[in-house]
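Encode chain A's predicted structure.
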Amino acid sequence: PAMKPLAMSPAFGAEGVAMALLGGAVLGSTVAFKTGLIGNVLGVSGITKGLLMSPSLGSFCFNIGLILAGTGMNLVYGGFETLPPADQPEGQRALFLARLGVGGFFVGVGTALGSGCTSGHGLTGLARLTRRSWVAVPCFMLVAIAIATAIETATAFPVQAPAGDRAPTRSDAAGWSVCLMAVLLIFVAAAPALHKLLRPSAPEALELKVLAELASGLIFGCGLAVSTMVRPSKVAGFLDLGSGAWDPSLPFVMGGALCITFPFFQILERATLPAPLLGGRIYLPPREKPVDRDIVLGSALFGVGWGTCGMCPGPMWVAFGANPSMDMCLAVLGMLCGMYTHVIWASACRPAAAPASLASDGKAVELSAAS
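Encoded structure for chain A:
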């Protein structure tokens, strides 16, 4: 079918802009919270991939937080969509499932190869002025738009009434955003005192770091719900330029988040990276890491998946928590299979490490990798 003229979606307006900006502010605040307390960046795809490569209690708790956020926000806030759509045409079921499975797979393999998704590259990398992220974000955006427009993703994910007919308003979004950011501030204010109380002589408060990981996942997931990015129709409405009902909510979400993360990271990096509030050290991937084939190819593959299924890793986990249907299970399983495929492929292609005794200066060499 011919492309429809580009026109604004009825689902977008002042209400949509406010909810996108408010949800984005919660997301950006959570990114700053996680880095300032724990010492590492918030990238959902990297944390999820970590569960497959080297599982840790912290990464497990973060992902559990995302799922619990979906379950809780679906009960008390609403705004989620059901999958499959209630008005899905007969005969489209198999194609829709294939879209979710294949799309999820490309999201997984692409974010693993490209070392990030909309959270890691979009909310953190852009704010830090990282070259790789400034290549990755336009790459996966443009590919996702091209794919979604070509295969009419907005038609597969039509705008529908939220499950239970509970449609949050701008006032609901504002109230929740204020409460969520207040929780972050309270945690930040109390963290140093709790560290001294529980571990007065320890350099790191490991138990509190695990709790902070859980809180980060929980509040980040709630922010995604407030921003409406857990609705595939909102993402598809932005990416599919041929639907005739364009919904530019997504850039407002990223803009709201970057209003927080950009000044945070610019100040943090100019302060010679002080220690996080819960001890240890702050680790940020090097900004000058060169742009290579993996970042371009991985971002393009992520764009293919995102444009196909309308979900990236964060919203996928949250939507799964809200509605763990067969459809969402298939999308999540596809994402995990894609990531694991990259892990196996990368392990097979990685050259064997040279013995320390073979170092040119005759001494052991410490290697560190960052993505």
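The first helix runs from residue 14 to 37.
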